[in-house]
Amino acid sequence: MLKAKIILVALGAALVVPQALAGNSPEEDRKEAVEYFKQRFPDVPFKEFVNGQYALDDDRRSQWESLQDFPPYEFAVAEGKEMFETPFANGKTYASCFENGGIGIRQNYPYFDMEKKEVITLELAINRCREENGEKPLRYKKGDIASISAYMASTSQGKEFDIKVPDEPAALAAYQDGKEFYYSRRGQLNFSCASCHVQNPGNWIRADLLSPALGQPSNFPVHRSKWGELGTLHRRFAGCNNNVRAEPLPAQSTEYRNLEYFLTYMSNGLPVVGPATRP
Question: Which residues are listed for heme c 2 binding in this entry (predicted)?
Fold first, then answer.
């Protein structure tokens, strides 16, 4: 861990002032982000950003493509499908809670609920569906909820993200809160999310090749070799906070949901490719 800290601190010392997006609207921010990554990686086609580090490194991509012959998340997706279709005690299923029966809708999450004035992620919606039907909520980072979410994502593969930020104060505030979280330094290492994924994608930290921010939510839930199982995006958020020695927040906290809202909006126009595999 000490070696990792030294490398991270050295990397941080080489950074310039964070390149925070300065658009006057979420859409201006998104266009600015897309242009930034296009200029930084001119040889990477726009839709390849969903493949994270594998869009940047040929050797890693070759290894990853070999793994796709037998993706390690297949059993979890099958289990998720079975759970999704199994009736609750009251006879209803998850399909009763979602538009189009929950099929092919991943690209619309997270969204801002104008009545509740909050960001609704897919995992939060899954648990609220359970509670509305008299079932106990699932744990948010892994296990059954990751499998159900992975199955639902699999039915949206190829559909492009189309996240909306209504021109309404509460929605814009949630977006701005997520943006500020992404660009705020924290933890003992004083790193922001942007330090790694805006300023340093394509660089290495020990054996980790940093991925670009653009397209990151597209592949979740992911099966990580490090985890040996599927995990949700908020599990990854907490892991990143731990890496910079910051206190992680609870999965599905307001802060993490707003962060997901901002980050996913930046990926509008990119396709859902989850579930996927990562190191």
Answer: 193, 196-197, 240
| 234 labelled ligand-binding | no
Among 189, 240, 245, 248, which one carries the catalytic annotation?
240
CA 9 to chain centre: 25
How many Cβ atoms from other residues are within 10 Å of residue 45's Cβ? 9
pLDDT tens-digit series, residues 100-121: 999 999 999 999 999 999 999 9
pLDDT band of 10, cuts 50, 70, 90: very low
Q: How far is 116 from 126, CA to CA, in rounded Å? A: 16
Structure tokens at 91: 């006879």
Angle between helices 144-154 and 74-85 (to 10 degrees): 90
Does the annotation flag 128 for ligand binding? no
The Cα 117–Cα 14 span in angstroms is 40
* Other beta carbons within 10 Å of 238: 22
Q: What is the CA radius of gyration of the chain?
A: 18
Q: What is the C-alpha separation between 232 and 149, in angstroms, rounded? A: 8
Active-site residue flag, 240: yes
206: which DSSP letter? T
Task: Mark 185-213 as b/e (b = at least 16 C-beta within 10 Å).
Answer: eebebebbbbbbbbbbbeeeeeeebbbbb
Can you tell me which residue has the tokens 């029966």?
Answer: 101
Residue 190 and residue 16: Cα distance in Å, rounded? 13
